[in-house]
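During the reporting period, we have paired protein sequences with backbone structure tokens. One record among many follows, to show the layout:
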Amino acid sequence: MAVPDKFTGYGALSPETWKDLKQIEFEPKPFEEYDVDIKIEYCGVCGSDLHTLRSGWGPTIYPCIVGHEIVGKAVKIGPKVTTIKVGDTVGVGANAWSCGECRSCLSDSEQYCPDLVETYNFKYKDGSRSYGGYSDYSRIHERMVFPIPENLPLAIAAPMLCAGVTVYSPLVRSKVGPGSRVGIVGIGGLGHFAIMFAKALGAEVTAISHTSSKSTDATKMGASNFITTSTEKWAEKHSRTLDIILCTSFAKDIPLEEYISMLDVGGTMIYVGIPESALPPLPPGLMIGNNSALRGSNTGSKKEVLEMLKLAADQGIKSWVEVVPMEKCVEAVEKLERGEARYRLVLKV
């Protein structure tokens, strides 16, 4: 298949018109010896897309084409590519390039490379830009391209490549397994994966949400317990009952003190949802009192993506998805903004 010199996608032109995605022709980065060109078939709609389109996390480079849960066919490979063949079904997550030489890259933590280029809204060293998967093609370094297992449907696999590994990575790095007590804050796109993967790793899972509206879904996903934070003394009743709390919420007014109080001695709360404002103040005495920790986690490594995809394929873990035609990406973005996704939206080219 001949790959066009220019690709086409749906992008925002300004923060004021961020929901009015226009069809845009763009020039991808120059093709290099380790690059893979992918004919996109599916792309998940991620919360990061909304934050970036509206400049919520800082100034966005416009025009901006988002999308970093990409699945499709490899149609062109560079001369030094060894792990991907033309015709392979492959995926791409939140990252497009890393240096391959720093300590992070050499220790299966390339998502923390100081020179990391993300799949969209970033610039390469030569000044060319990265554009996301609301497009017909994507050009990505081999290091960030993942083979998709044959028995994993493409629409199911796509949202795992960002949302899935974003929760899988901190779970495995925290050595979650049988006997672990894991709380998941926020039962949305990230949270639904967190419940399923924590359960698959052997943990006892507690879902935590502001209302009980998603309790039935959370149970089907694998949660054994459900905590509603709008009830009286909810945190007090569950003091020191969790080893790990994974916060997938983007809420600005999160009750951080109450969550920390739910950690048992030596427990850790891990942030993967990124609010558009600072976290609430946290008294250090509270963390000293239960020897707890608060940290963050950024997506996952290629090693973790491949492990996660194998786990999903072997155990039949399936994203809860709604597939939407790519040309209706505006409707999909608006639906996600309204909080109506159950639980991931996936665009089909």
